[in-house]
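TICKET: design request
STATUS: open
ATTACHED STRUCTURE:
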């Protein structure tokens, strides 16, 4: 399981790097495909974190995946450029572009919660890890409720 998680984390970090290079260098990349893969990896990473928390496992190893979530959160707005609202079986709602400030605020809040989660994991504070895991999940849910079609 650790090897699979490490692979997922490496892919997530690679996607983060690709997305941060900018559209000028990534004209051939499909932002819908990038964000769908990134969201799948986010779900897997977050699912792993939630499983460890629910099992009351050792939280220290959760520092790296929490940092990966924080990096991804910072990248999320960049994989929703103007014009990427159609095609690729996207579930992105028009509100992402019409309420960009609200969309970006949720991404920032998710990143902040993930950063706090990483710090709590590093400290081995299981109670705080549980609190911040819920905070990350709350931000995921807020984004899905307002910006993702069912």
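STATUS: resolved
RESOLUTION: sequence designed for all positions
ATTACHED SEQUENCE:
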């Amino acid at each position: 399981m650790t090897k699979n998680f490490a692979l997922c984390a490496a892919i997530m970090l690679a996607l983060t790097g690709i997305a941060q290079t900018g559209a000028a260098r990534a004209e051939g990349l499909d932002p819908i495909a990038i964000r769908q893969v990134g969201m799948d990896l986010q779900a897997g990473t977050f699912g792993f974190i939630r499983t460890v928390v629910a099992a009351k496992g050792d939280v220290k190893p959760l520092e790296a995946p929490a940092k990966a979530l924080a990096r991804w959160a910072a990248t999320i707005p960049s994989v929703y450029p103007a014009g990427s609202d159609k095609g690729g079986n996207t579930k992105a709602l028009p509100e992402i572009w019409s309420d960009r400030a609200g969309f970006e605020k949720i991404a920032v809040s998710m990143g902040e919660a993930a950063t706090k989660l990483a710090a709590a994991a590093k400290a081995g504070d299981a109670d705080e890890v549980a609190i911040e895991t819920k905070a990350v999940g709350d931000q995921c849910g807020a984004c899905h409720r307002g910006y993702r079609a069912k």
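CLOSING REMARK: The CA atoms of residues 93 and 147 lie 5 Å apart. The chain has six helices and no strands.
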